[in-house]
């Protein structure tokens, strides 16, 4: 394939924005891909920054999701522990709430641990 501006000059790659063939003189190497020098460099780096941002957001959500059961268990334990420590002898509302939190944490944890095993089940 030839450069879209210089017929007869072999293209070294495609612009990530407009997908035209670029020769070394027309290509701007941005490190993660090529762009038309002077015309699409900004578009391509913006698109890459957005993509990186999305990747990071997805990673954050994944790690937060795996922390959810721990969060419920810890909150539940703190609520129960606090009232027991304060000398509660009966089922106070915060102990009850703490038990609910801990229960939700266990249920969420069990659901999450079971979920990845479903596709592996063979009949
Ligand atoms: Zn371009
Ligand atoms: Zn060229």
Kindly describe this structure.
By secondary structure, the chain is mainly α. It has a domain at 61-120. 54% of the residues lie in helices and 8% in strands. It is built from 2 helices and 4 strands, in the order ββββαα. The chain has helices at residues 41-85, 93-114; strands spanning 13-14, 21-22, 27-29, 34-36. The strands form 2 sheets. It has a two-stranded antiparallel sheet. The longest helix is centred in the middle third of the chain and has 45 residues, at 41-85. The mean pLDDT is 87. Bound molecules: zinc ion (ZN) (2 copies). This is B box-type domain-containing protein. It comes from Noviluteimonas caseinilytica. Keywords: Membrane, Transmembrane, Transmembrane helix. The chain crosses the membrane at residues 64-82, 94-113.
Q: Topology, pairings included?
A:
Elements: E1 13-14, E2 21-22, E3 27-29, E4 34-36, H1 41-85, H2 93-114
Helix pairs in contact: 1-2
The protein binds zinc ion (2 copies).
Organism: Noviluteimonas caseinilytica
Keywords: Membrane, Transmembrane, Transmembrane helix
Protein name: B box-type domain-containing protein
